[in-house]
Amino acid sequence: MVKICNSSSIACITSNCSLFFVYDELQEWPEEDYPPYANGPGYILSSDIAQFVVAEFEKHKLRLFKMEDVSMGMWVEQFNSSKSVEYTHSLKFCQFGCIEDYYTAHYQSPRHMLCMWDKLQLQGKPQCCNMR
């Protein structure tokens, strides 16, 4: 499962304080449309896509970009040209903190991550930690 966005309608970030700052848009990506990308704090791939990525990597046939979600989006699109890909999105890929029964929890402190890992090991399901 991968959420792919085509950012041709999204303006480049021009603040050099941002991780996603594009210093020289034409130098970093000279093509007219920005590549598709996996948007969010995580993604899950089927084994056939993962095997395709590994095989293409070993043959040096993958195009790389400085952000891994953009690279992954391009690789999935490359796979998609030979076999249909089903894109889905779940709110369990939480981009704003933590929700119960999460797949990913974004912006967690190391202390929260350890607590969440302990809960997962003890209770067998993902649960948030609301400590301060």
Automatic annotation (TrEMBL):
InterPro entries: Glyco_trans_31. Pathway: Protein modification; protein glycosylation. Its EC number is 2.4.1.-. It is found in: Golgi apparatus membrane. It is a single-pass type II membrane protein. GO terms for cellular component: Golgi membrane. It is an enzyme of class 2 (transferase). Coiled coil: none annotated. Belongs to the glycosyltransferase 31 family. This is Hexosyltransferase. It comes from Rubroshorea leprosula.
